[in-house]
Every structure is written in structure tokens, then in C-alpha cells.
Specification:
It is built from 22 helices and two strands. It is mainly α and about 525 residues long. It folds into two domains: about 220 residues, no CATH class; about 240 residues, no CATH class. The protein has a two-stranded parallel sheet.
């Protein structure tokens, strides 16, 4: 049955690629990126092992790898839901088949291939120590196994917690709390001077945790620390064993108990009663409801303070701090590039409704455009005050407005051209659709490139104004930027509406197939 599960994964993967040439290109790019980055780390491990002792670096690197695999799917990347236990429950599959099949399939994706290739570097780091190399051939695979089992076990155990509306809302709250500690965490890391002594101390601590114990085995053999070897070996063997037991128990629970469902309740018309009585108002009310209540939309807004914090920490009070405003504008404006994909089959209401597609485009633009403008304004004024560059207020405010307007225009066109698999309404927020990440990555790359080309004149004027301290150039940048932004917005809305008028039923069919 394991072979059948792997075949299922392969067929789902091929089916995803056949839907769009862009997803095929994205898959190739992701695979090449994983191979190249993993290969660089493997070569670095080999070269570094030939020149010096990398025992501490191996332990720290391995521990980070396991930590990312274990926690990363919960807070960032998600896991493909092809092997969702509840979907496979009606089939005659044993827990062993499901566990082995999903674990192996996980390693066949870009992340798994990167991990395997990079782990080869952790082995090659001991090429000058034959005995330690043999220990690495045992310890590193144990560490990789722990990483995969950790990711699968934690996500499987967390699924029941987010099945209902309250669980999903709680997940959003937790995400907001995580964002709130980003700044202290970055400042703490920034204040630490990374020296060989720091790495050695971190490795000594990490080697006695489930994350790094397996990667410490070759160092113990090389140093002849047999007592430490025995202790690390016990932890390295016990960790995957306990993860398997935990995973089996979670699988048993999900395979034998029905999924919980939650029903919402409301009173009155809500937002619909507070917007203009028009097609644009109806679309606006629907989108505002999604932005407030749908966790999938909330993640876009959560990224705004993250961007500001990262820029503030990295740039300090320097001129690079001033890019925070345009970055916030781009984040808010580009968020609607996936609006139709997030609608899923509910997009049929827009297809069936007797309204013009320009009304659809404008309703979505206003829903995020107004709060986006407020966030951009607040961020820009804050950066101007912190950097003490109030003379650049016209340039920065103008470029921020231009970025928001142009992003909204480009996103209005892109969302009408391309849809890709995303989490469905009510889905587990810890999941991710096969092929969705590639589509998102490509759309972001192409959107950023297009925005850079469109706003290049305003950006050049803004940079010159900041460098030369010219208020006149700042005003010129504002006028040129806003003019370009308005033009791109109008063109994007018009051609996006025209594209939807021609192929909205086709998009709905594709959404239904995801």
C-alpha cells in the first residue's frame, strides 16, 4: 500500500502541473533552487571538513534543520494535505502504511530534497575522520528521520485543534502573538556576537536536546567521548520512537472520530447594511467580511507589522528605514492578487450576479485600498520622524501612494489572469494545497518586477531627492508617482474586468477542480 500512496502523491503532483504552465515552471524552479542551495551546503560541508573541525557547526546546523521541520509547518509553510487522515479514512489503509507513505512522500518534495542534499554536507564534514564518518552515516540519517517525523507528528496532532471556527480564530491570535515577539527576538539575535565560542556553546547545549543529539554522534566518536556518545545515542533513538508513538495516537484519533463542525450565527445585515446600496457596495461588504473573519486574509495583514519591524531593526535610523512605507503599500495592494483563488467556488456568486466586472474590481480594490492607505500613511510618517527626514515627506508620501495604487491595479489584472490552489474556506490553516506555493511565488516575483518597471521613474526621482536633499525633486517624485499609480490602477481595473468578462466561467471551472 505504501507504493500506492506514493503513486497517488505522484499523480496529484502531475495533475497539478498539467493545470498551468506557470505551475510547471514554478515546480522546475523550486526543484532547481532546492538542489542548488542544498548542493552549496553539501560542498561547504566537504570543503570546511577538509580544512578544519566543524563538529560544533554540524550540531547547530542539524538542530536548526530539525527545529524548522518540526515547527515550520505550523507557523509558516504548511504541509500538503494529500495524506490528510480524514480523507483516507474510508480506505483500507493501516496506520503503518499511511505513516511510511506520507513520510517518504514528504522527502520527495523540494523541501525534502534540499534536506537530503544538505544533510550530505553534514556527513562529508567528517571525511577526514573515518570513524567519525561512519558515526555520521548513522547519526545524520537519524536526525533527518527525526525532522520528518517531527513535522508530520506535530501537524497531525494540531489538526483537531483548528477544525472549528474557534480553533481557527485561536490560530490567528497565536500568530499575532508570535508576530509581537518578532522584534525582541530579532534584537536579541542582533545583539549576540556570533563567534566560534558562541557556536561551540550552542552546540554543547543543543547536543543534549532531541533536535541535535543525533548530529553529535560523530563528534563524540572523534573525541573519544564514549559516555557522551551513549547519552546522545539514547536521545537520538528515543526521540523518533516517541514521535512515532505520538503520531500513531493522533492518527488513531482522527481515523476513528468524526470531524468537528462549527456553525456561525449572526444578527442583521452586518457590514452589508453599512455600505452603499450598489453592486460595488455589495462586493465591498463581502470582501470586508472576509478581511475581518477569514484567517487566510488575516495573514496578509499580519505581515505588515513584521515588515516594519524587520526594516526598523535592520536599517536602524538610516535612510533604508524610509523603504518601510512603500513596502507596506505593496504588501496591502498585492494582497488582492489571490482574491479570486481565495473565493474558491463561492466565486460563482460573482459570475451569476447581474453586475459589471468593473464593479467587482472596484469593490475589491476599495476593501483593502482604504485600510492600506491608512497603514501606509502611518508607517511613512513614523519612518520620516524616526529618520528625521521630514523634508522628504512629499517624495515618500507620493511614492507610497503610487506603490499602493499601482499594486492594486496590477493585482486586479493578475487575479483575473491566474488562479492556483490555495486553502479552501474553512480548511485547516496548517495545510497547503499542492502547487499553491509555486503559483504564489511566481506571481509575487512577476508582480514585483512589473511594479519596479512601472514605478522606476518615480523611484529614481525619490532616490535622487533623498541623496541630494532636494525638496523640488521630492515634489516631482510625488507628482510623477501618483500619476503613474492612478494610470496603472485604472488600466489594471479595466483590463482585469475585460479579462473576467471573457473567461470568468473558465476560472470558476478551474477553481472547482482544485
Amino acid at each position: 500500500m505504501v507504493a500506492q500512496l506514493l503513486s497517488l502523491r505522484w499523480q496529484v503532483y502531475l495533475g497539478t502541473l498539467r493545470r498551468s504552465v506557470w505551475q510547471t515552471i514554478g515546480a522546475v524552479v523550486a526543484m532547481l533552487y532546492a538542489l542548488s542551495l542544498g548542493g552549496l551546503l553539501a560542498v561547504a560541508g566537504l570543503v570546511g571538513g577538509l580544512r578544519s573541525d566543524l563538529s560544533a557547526e554540524v550540531v547547530v546546523g542539524g538542530a536548526i534543520l530539525v527545529l524548522v521541520w518540526t515547527v515550520g509547518p505550523l507557523v509558516a509553510f504548511g504541509l500538503d494535505d494529500t495524506f490528510d487522515p480524514r480523507r483516507l479514512a474510508p480506505f483500507p489503509l493501516s496506520r503503518r502504511d499511511l505513516m511510511v507513505g506520507s513520510s517518504v512522500a514528504t522527502l520527495l518534495g523540494p523541501g525534502g530534497i534540499f534536506t537530503v542534499v544538505a544533510a550530505l554536507g553534514l556527513v562529508l564534514a567528517w571525511v577526514t575522520e573515518p570513524a567519525a564518518l561512519l558515526a555520521a552515516l548513522v547519526g545524520v540519517p537519524l536526525g533527518v528521520t527525526t525532522a520528518v517525523l517531527g513535522g508530520r507528528a506535530t501537524t497531525t496532532a494540531a489538526r483537531p485543534l483548528v477544525e472549528g471556527r474557534r480553533g481557527r480564530d485561536l490560530a490567528v491570535v497565536v500568530a499575532v502573538l508570535l508576530v509581537s515577539v518578532v522584534a525582541p527576538a530579532i534584537l536579541l539575535v542582533d545583539s549576540i556576537s556570533i563567534t566560534p565560542e558562541t557556536v561551540a556553546g550552542t552546540a554543547a547545549w543543543a547536543s543534549w536536546t532531541p533536535f541535535g543529539a543525533a548530529f553529535a554522534l560523530p563528534a563524540d566518536v572523534a573525541a573519544g567521548a564514549w559516555a557522551a556518545l551513549a547519552g546522545h545515542l539514547v536521545i537520538a533513538l528515543a526521540t523518533p520512537a516517541l514521535l512515532v508513538l505520538w503520531w500513531r495516537r493522533s492518527l488513531t484519533t482522527q481515523l476513528t472520530r468524526p470531524a468537528r463542525a462549527s456553525a456561525g450565527h449572526g444578527k442583521g445585515l452586518g457590514v452589508l447594511g453599512r455600505v452603499p446600496d450598489s453592486p460595488v457596495g455589495a462586493v465591498l461588504a463581502r470582501c470586508l467580511t472576509y478581511w475581518v473573519r477569514d484567517p487566510r486574509y488575516a495573514t496578509s495583514l499580519i505581515s505588515v507589522p513584521v515588515l516594519v519591524v524587520i526594516v526598523a531593526v535592520l536599517a536602524g535610523d538610516g535612510p533604508w528605514l524610509l523603504v518601510a512605507g512603500p513596502l507596506v503599500a505593496w504588501t496591502c495592494g498585492w494582497a488582492i492578487s489571490v482574491d479570486i483563488a481565495l473565493d474558491s467556488t463561492a466565486f460563482w456568486t460573482h459570475v451569476a450576479a447581474p453586475m459589471r466586472w468593473t464593479d467587482d474590481r472596484w469593490g475589491r480594490v476599495v476593501a483593502i485600498g482604504v485600510p492600506g492607505a491608512l497603514l501606509t500613511l502611518v508607517t511613512t510618517l513614523w519612518t520620516l520622524g524616526r529618520a528625521d527626514r521630514w523634508d522628504m515627506a512629499p517624495a515618500l508620501l507620493g511614492v507610497g501612494a503610487a506603490t499602493l495604487l499601482a499594486s492594486l491595479g496590477l493585482a486586479s489584472l493578475v487575479s483575473a489572469l491566474v488562479v492556483f490552489p490555495v486553502n479552501q474556506p474553512g480548511d485547516n490553516p496548517f495545510g497547503a494545497k499542492q502547487g499553491g506555493s509555486m503559483g504564489m511565488m511566481l506571481s509575487q516575483m512577476l508582480g514585483t518586477l512589473a511594479l519596479a518597471v512601472v514605478l522606476a521613474p518615480a523611484a529614481v526621482l525619490t532616490v535622487l531627492a533623498i541623496v541630494r536633499g532636494s525638496v523640488a525633486l521630492g515634489w516631482a517624485a510625488a507628482v510623477v508617482g501618483i500619476a503613474l499609480g492612478v494610470v496603472v490602477l485604472l488600466v489594471g481595473v479595466r483590463f482585469g474586468a475585460r479579462r473576467l468578462d471573457a473567461r470568468a466561467p473558465e476560472l470558476l471551472t478551474r477553481l472547482a477542480s482544485f
